[in-house]
Specification:
about 900 residues, alpha+beta, Immunoglobulin-like, Porin, 18-stranded mixed beta sheet, six-stranded mixed beta sheet, disordered N terminus, Peptidase M1 membrane alanine aminopeptidase domain-containing protein, Peptidase_M4/M1_CTD_sf, Peptidase_M1_dom
Length: about 900
């Protein structure tokens, strides 16, 4: 795959110029130069053997404004490309001054040559591949001439299927040829063909070429839709033509007729990194996932971009003008066609997943960003331009789309559709600003909405109102309301009385807190803020009095309205407990784990183990300390049985920006563990012991273009007085380093280093183990037993400690340890490994006489299987095949 930018004969020296001009185009104020008329005639040839695109270009420019134009700019232009003597050139890093200023209603013709250097590939994607004209004012570039007419001739290898922004002129024979599978197409290896395309009044001209595409054509209300899929994927995409036709038909009714001559939808996985749209082209990277409608939802969003990102072209600073209506259109389309739970397409009722649709997905993303302090003002550069991660790019889509859903509820769906159509009509052919859309909404509603938009576009915070208290004094009811967010909005307050009567009041205070008073003899049963859900809030748990509670069996999707209570039976089996039968109950607001910041999440359980004939009681609780920060969390875990009992208390602070690297955590904790009986546990690894420890764990992660990974530092202090009746007094420290190095696109090397030391008395189960961890950890939480095949030291594996997998089954553990694990990632599922390290009770020559092993890891998602084949110690090498399985949910560097 290659996505080629325009390059000249010396691209390296010109890249800073390109970036500088591009940035100026994005952020500079754009003066009103009027709409210009530009025509491009481009003749280009793709040489696949040398991976070079060469071309000539003729630009006809008519000045239709009332301004005199004295200079022009181009993307990536240098003196070797100029073929027109009417241009006076002194410094090619600056705008080019015209010898003769271009007066109103005057024109100029420019001839250029250009070259793009491509990576050798089977698939090619070209955007910004030709010199584009940029207007200048006061000798500074302002904005590219957004809309132009194109006549393009492309000479390509004969086996290439080409899709472009424009309409193919010599198409009858070519279209018929494109519909054949690649193996049945007549073509000659060294032959080329020339295809001619024409596009009128478009903002850009992009094209894609690949020998693997197969064409399917459908139509929707007069619009021709071309579907280009890889031949090997045709059966996976068999519903795409019908879906694209349905989407275009529905959007035609909402936003006006499809704005281009035709629509081409391309299976672009491996060609572009993410979904993208150009005029007349939709490139989707979403793979069809069985039993879901993910592809259809993403297709709807990208087709909507044809209206809001291609028919009009907002400045990137105002990206909400394109992504907001597109996400709104996607949500509305999916709900009208498939209902609320529209992302799942199961052969049975979804049960606990009912309601899992586009709206829930975007609401969860918005909540995620709000609770991780990751929201940016709506009218700002999207995260991709601000150096943010891909998750935050999706949260920007969620923020903009949900804003338009709120706007729909405030002004009404019909008025919003009318405002969108008016906005499209008035801004076609220019780069619209927020004022254009605000004016359209104000015109439709007959109200000045500037103040409303100003808050939502420029405020970083959220809109969040809460009922804090309700008091009754005789016939007087006092309702305390607090504004927790930065955005101020009028709020409807609905009161429901015990006799069934309801009453609505308005809350319009601009203060942070206030009291709403009401005099009535009736008894208040329920109160709700914003009962019609007009406002965009991260959650609505504090909108109700009394707090809204849902009780459901088993489990359900997290609710943004209610505190949820669940209950159900419990059944599990492992070699230590045998069958575990019992019951559990859980309460929570949303979910609380990692970046998911719910609140007051607790679980109680009671189970009976048939093998050890023992009852087990468990309890846990965790919540963010939101009065300090949503990223500071406290957690408690306790369990008790006749065999063992334990308590764990942790305070965890997340560091860095959410969803971005570098990042890290500080984890300060206390742990008490009392193992009363070692029945069912391997005696080589387990002692009857009571330990109490204060521990500190520091974690750090990073990612760059060629490296990613992180470090973990652990320090523990065991003291008898911390837990009572403990005989163990010790210090324990360890350091873990994991780093992945990208050697090529397909080849990575992953290095893990470990070192640990213990001073003082400590039981066997707390020492460092040679072949891997003894017990589960946060990344690998599943346990099957403590002896035999299911033990962490035999055929169930945890990546921890020295991690020399060839020595599994030996139960070697000591107070000092070191290890180096090397993985070569050849394929996503195939990782040959080499381990070297040792354990010892003293640091002497025997300790440094390292043990070694080698083998291969097979990885499938979270599951992995290690197959050590060889090991060596004291100069003795042996073929020692073994195996172990593991399940890893998270980890540094994907290791």
């Amino acid at each position: 795959m290659h996505q080629a930018p325009f390059n000249t004969e010396n691209p390296q020296t010109l890249m800073p110029v390109l970036r500088a001009i591009g940035l100026l185009l994005i952020v500079l104020f754009q003066p009103c130069l009027g709409r210009q008329h530009v025509r491009y005639r481009i003749y280009a040839r793709l040489d696949r053997s040398d991976s070079i695109l060469t071309g000539t270009e003729q630009i006809n420019f008519w000045n239709n404004s009332q301004d005199t134009i004295r200079a022009l700019c181009f993307f990536g232009l240098n003196k070797h490309q100029i073929k027109d003597i009417s241009l006076a050139v002194k410094n090619f890093d600056q705008p080019i001054k015209l010898k003769r200023p271009l007066l109103p209603d005057d024109s100029i013709n420019i001839m250029l040559k250009f070259t793009s250097f491509c990576k050798r590939s089977r698939d090619y994607m070209f955007s910004n591949w030709y010199p584009r004209l940029v207007l200048c004012q006061n000798e500074l570039p302002t904005a590219p001439v957004q809309f132009a007419d194109y006549e393009v001739e492309l000479t390509v290898p004969e086996d290439m299927v080409v899709a472009t922004t424009g309409t193919l002129i010599n198409r009858n024979k070519e279209l018929k040829w494109m519909k054949y599978p690649p193996d049945f197409r007549p073509w000659s290896r060294d032959s080329v063909k020339t295809l001619r395309f024409r596009a009128r009044d478009v903002a850009d001209f992009a094209w894609v070429a690949s020998p693997d595409f197969v064409l399917t054509q459908v139509s929707a209300q007069g619009t021709v839709i071309n579907i280009l899929t890889r031949n090997r994927n045709r059966f996976m995409w068999f519903r795409l033509p019908e879906q694209a036709s349905e989407i275009v038909g529905r959007f035609n009714k909402c936003f006006g007729k499809y704005p281009f001559d035709q629509l081409t939808v391309i299976d672009a996985r491996g060609i572009v990194p993410s979904d993208t749209s150009f005029p007349g082209l939709v490139m989707t990277c979403q793979k069809p996932v069985p039993f879901t409608r993910l592809l259809e939802s993403r297709l709807a969003r990208q087709i909507a971009m044809q209206w809001f990102s291609c028919f009009v072209v907002p400045n990137q600073v105002h990206s909400w003008l394109s992504i907001g209506p597109a996400v709104y259109a996607e949500i509305r389309y999916m709900e009208k066609r498939h209902g609320q739970g529209n992302l799942l397409e199961l052969p049975f009722k979804p049960g606990i997943l009912s309601g899992f649709g586009d709206r829930f997905y975007y609401q969860a993303l918005y909540y995620l960003a709000a609770t991780n302090e990751a929201l940016t003002p709506l009218d700002s550069l999207p995260p991709v331009y601000a150096g943010r991660g891909p998750i935050l790019s999706e949260t920007k889509y969620a923020q903009a789309g949900l804003f338009f859903l709120m706007l729909e509820k405030i002004i009404g769906p019909d008025k919003l559709k009318y405002a969108l159509r008016l906005y499209l009509k008035k801004t076609h052919g220019k780069a619209p600003s927020p004022t254009d859309f605000i004016d359209a909404c104000s015109h439709v509603t007959g109200e000045d909405l500037t103040g409303f938009f100003d808050q939502w576009l420029r405020t970083k915070g959220t809109c969040d109102y809460a009922v804090t208290e309700v008091k009754r004094k005789g016939k007087d009811i006092e309702i305390s309301i607090r504004r927790k967010g930065e955005i101020i909005m009028p709020v409807d307050v609905e009161l429901t009385f015990t006799d069934g009567e309801t009453k609505r009041l308005d809350w319009k205070s601009r203060k942070r807190t206030g009291i709403l008073k009401l005099t009535t003899p009736k008894v208040l049963k329920r109160l709700t803020l914003d009962p019609d859900r007009k406002l965009l809030e991260p959650d609505r748990w504090n909108n109700h009095w009394p707090r809204k509670v849902e009780i459901k069996p088993f489990i359900a999707l997290p609710s943004f309205d209610a505190y949820q209570l669940f209950y159900g039976p419990y059944a599990w089996f492992d070699s230590y407990h045998g069958f575990q039968l019992g019951a559990w109950t859980q309460g929570r607001e949303f979910l609380d784990a990692g970046p998911l910041h719910g609140r007051h999440m607790w679980t109680l359980s009671e189970t009976y183990s048939t093998k050890i004939k023992d009852w087990h009681t468990g309890a846990s609780y965790q919540t963010p300390l939101s009065f300090i920060s949503d990223r500071l969390r406290i957690s408690f875990l306790g369990d008790y049985s006749l065999m063992a009992a334990g308590v764990r208390l942790n305070l965890v602070q997340e560091l860095g920006r959410a969803f971005q690297k570098p990042g890290g955590t500080i984890d300060l904790g206390y742990r008490l563990f009392d193992l009363k009986d070692t029945v069912g546990r391997n005696p080589r690894a387990w002692d009857s012991a009571r330990t109490a420890e204060i521990r500190l764990k520091l974690s750090h992660s990073y990612e760059t273009r060629y490296f990613n990974g992180g470090q973990n530092f652990y320090l523990g202090r065991g003291l008898p007085q911390l837990g009572g009746h403990s005989d163990y007094n010790y210090w324990k420290a360890s350091v873990e380093q994991v780093h992945a190095v990208r050697l090529s696109r397909r080849l990575n090397i992953i290095l893990r280093g470990f070192g640990g030391a213990i001073w003082g008395q400590i039981p066997n189960q707390s020492q460092f183990y040679l072949s891997g961890g003894l017990v589960p950890n946060s990344a690998e939480p599943v346990s099957w037993g403590y002896q035999g095949m299911s033990s962490g030291q035999e055929h169930w594996h945890y990546d921890a400690d020295a991690n020399l997998r060839g020595w599994a089954g030996q139960y070697l553990h000591r107070r000092f340890a070191y290890g180096l694990n090397i993985h070569l990632k050849i394929l996503p599922f195939l990782l040959p490994f080499f381990d070297i390290g040792n354990v010892g009770d003293t640091i002497d020559s025997q300790f440094w006489d390292a043990r070694m092993d080698a083998g291969v890891r097979l990885k499938l998602g979270w599951l992995y299987a290690d197959f050590p084949l060889w090991r060596c110690h004291n100069g003795k090498s042996e073929f020692s095949p073994n195996w172990s399985l593991g399940l890893k949910l998270t980890g540094l560097a994907g290791f």
